[in-house]
Automatic annotation (TrEMBL), chain A:
InterPro entries documented for this protein: SQR/QFR_C/D, SuccDH_FuR_B_TM-su
Protein name: Succinate dehydrogenase
Cellular-component GO terms for this entry: membrane
Pfam families (alphabetical): Sdh_cyt
Length: 155, 115
């Protein structure tokens, strides 16, 4: 490699002269995670490009986004399932990506454990929160007055 | 090598955005007023440019991800990885140009058109 290239993570360097991590386990988890990144990535391209096209390109674009816009979409099971799949796949894909980066660059065992614990807790909270919001959402909340979708009864 | 660095950086940026995006969208469960207030705070040219940068990151990550899949699963993938990177950058430009025209027109005309 040329002198201005970046050393591969976990490679021999002045900071880590030789590989000190535990030997590889016999679990196939890493193989599964590698495959999951590729499969979920392909599905996410469809889900996210569709999401961006509908929300940013059609109609009034991003200017049209308000409570009524979201309520209109989530009154349709099609968009509930779409957004649920996007939430779970994107969160798992992103969490595994950041897990890989932590494993690459956090050299101390304790640092690695701490960062990954924070990552997993944050991801679990976001996945549970997002799932609950999609399924407990009321497009016509009682008492609300602004930005309601047109199908809500007039108060 | 730089595509690998770019893939990691865009991945982390998109993941951090995703955490915030789920949190702000969750405000629909609080009240229409809360959600519309926060979304209203995003409706200015600075955030509009940030959204453009985010989409640029997503589109690069998406097309370079397909390139990674081709390198891993296509027999001639490793041989053509450099040519495929130019393909990724070309597809990125072809996708971004119409998007930027549409998105930035909406962002700037609504902000300076006053409504």
């Amino acid at each position: 490699m040329s002198t201005n290239s970046i050393a591969s993570p976990r490679s021999n360097s002045a900071q880590s002269p030789k590989y000190k991590r535990n030997k590889a386990s016999h679990s196939s988890f890493e193989m599964f995670a590698w495959l999951f990144m590729r499969l979920s990535g392909v599905v996410l391209i469809v889900l996210i490009f569709g999401h961006l096209f509908v929300n940013l390109m059609l109609g009034e674009g991003i200017h049209a986004i308000d409570f009524g816009f979201v309520a209109g979409k989530w009154s349709d099971p099609f968009w509930q399932i779409w957004d649920l799949a996007m939430l779970w796949l994107a969160m798992l894909h992103g969490t595994n990506g950041v897990r890989t980066i932590i494993n690459d660059y956090a050299e101390r065992n304790g640092t690695r454990m701490t960062l990954k614990t924070i990552l997993y807790v944050a991801s679990a909270v976001i996945i549970v929160l997002g799932t609950l919001v999609i399924f407990t959402f009321d497009p016509c909340p009682p008492g609300a007055v602004i930005d309601l979708p047109s199908f809500c009864p007039v108060p | 090598m730089w595509s690998w660095v770019g893939h990691r950086i865009t991945g982390v940026v998109i993941f951090i955005f995703l955490l915030v995006h789920v949190l702000d969208t969750s405000l629909v469960r609080v009240s229409p007023e809360a959600y519309t207030a926060v979304i209203g705070a995003y409706k200015n040219p600075i955030m509009g440019l940030g959204e453009a940068a985010l989409v640029a990151a997503i589109v690069f990550h998406a097309f370079n991800g397909l390139r990674i899949i081709a390198i891993d699963f296509w027999k001639k993938g490793p041989k053509y990885q450099r040519q495929m990177l130019w393909g990724v950058l070309a597809l990125w430009a072809v996708t971004m140009i119409p998007f930027l025209i549409r998105h930035l027109t909406i962002v700037f005309s609504n902000f300076f058109g006053g409504n």
